[in-house]
Amino acid sequence: MTEDPDPGIADPILPAPLHNLDLGPDAGANHLLAMLRQQDMQGDLVSGLPILPGLFFSLDPDSVTTGTYASAPGLLLEADFTVEHPGRWMALHIALGDADLTGRQVLGVVCKSASPQTTTYRICLRSGRETGDFVDHFLRKTVVAYASPSLHLDALQIETDATLPLQAPWRELILFFRPETSRIALHDLRIFIV
Asked: Residues 96-112: pLDDT tens digits?
């Protein structure tokens, strides 16, 4: 039997373990993108038809645009667009649920993309309103995709934009591609709201 070297010193009181699971307002969209990362699928582009629940392409109905998409492990999503008559938009929508921005400072994205021919696209936060319409807030930078994958980082400063609603019945992150014949490969996309 060993003796306590100093019976006058009590064991330190350890704090109760903290739970480190924080499902922030970006959790739903990042889960959706994680599901897409694991898919091995392909199909024809059909405007409004979900690729996964909460993820779909939108094509201007006044355009004549066709195409295909594919997803595989290691490639988030690749889309081939054939535009016979250009429209006003060609976009990928990612649902963010109601993403409460109260007390948050920044909404941002990190994406890695490539295109055989240099092209650009813009990223937008769309917030629904109770009236049934919506308001768009574009991130400041234009994404440029080259032949080899390039990384892009951009963010909206929530607290500096009085027109950005902190609460909304629904939100989407939208990637607006140039309405022209092209191919875009999204190697990765992450969303953060802090």
From this structure: 999 999 999 999 999 99
- What's the half-sphere exposure (Cβ side, CA atoms, 13 Å) at 184? 25
pLDDT in tens, 2-55: 555 555 555 555 555 555 455 788 998 999 999 999 999 999 999 999 999 999
User: How far, CA to CA in Å, does 80 sit from each of 21, 57, 68, 128, 180?
Assistant: 38, 12, 5, 29, 10
* Beta bridge partners of residue 120, listed in sequence order: 144
Please choose, from the candidates 91, 120, 94, 115, the residue with its C-alpha nearest in 3D space to the C-alpha of residue 185. 115
What is the distance between the alpha carbons of residues 57 and 137, in angstroms, rounded to a whole number? 19
User: By the 8 A CB rule, do 181 and 141 touch?
Assistant: no
pTM for the structure as a whole: 0.87
CA 107 from centre of chain: 10
Cα 152 to Cα 189: distance, rounded to the nearest angstrom: 9
Enumerate domains of the chain plus CATH numbers. 27-193 (2.60.120.260)
Q: Which long-range contacts (CB under 8 A, 24 or more apart) does 10-16 make?
A: none
